[in-house]
# Entry
Amino acid sequence: MATKADFALSGRIEQGGLASGIVPTGTVALGLDGKPVPFATDRHFLIGFDRDAPATALLVATMADGSRHQLALSILPHAWKIESLPTLPRGTTPTPEFLARRKIELDRIVTARATDTGAQGWRQALAWPATGRISGVFGSQRIYAGEPGAFHAGVDVARPTGTPVAAPADGVIILAADAPFSLEGNLLMIDHGMGLNSAFLHLSRIDVRRGDIVRRGQIVGAIGMTGRATGPHLHWAMKWRDARIDPAPLAGPMP
# Structure
């Protein structure tokens, strides 16, 4: 059995966390729980863990001779902020028209996230795209009359409409909405490479186009309240492949 040192693994091995590492010398393939994980020519890689990730995962590096290095990971749980609203229903039933529109929007998001641009921002420390009061935390969830609602899949920063939004790391624009999405409003997405991407919701404007290369700290848009929002704020969401990641600990303390 391999050890953590064999993979030079570091980072947040916890629900909503992101970790980085270096595969053992001679690795030709890497997998996490049976799913392939890319790694760079210098042997560096990323792995992420969803908000509801199970307690364990298995990291496997396969060598050229067929031998394998296996590392069992213990994923730390989180006590997410849960709010019970026993007298409120979850919400209204969506109309067929909304569902048809929503499918088109979700297909665009899935296609964007599947885009591999070769960006290298995943190697950088993340910066806050905007600073201000944190009005919503990752992983929080409401329970409506015993029925769970969707958990909050990002971090919210409350600032006035028009406040600039900057790229948290280098990347390539993979989606820049030409019209507001039903829930996300003006949606912008950046691929940082290695399966890691950022999404910025509810923007009042978008200053870049799909395919643009952006640098850490570059202004890409402005805070707004388009889509389903009750006030102006930035909703910053991150994903590593299919795993929802908490951006706040990666960006560090709010400046």
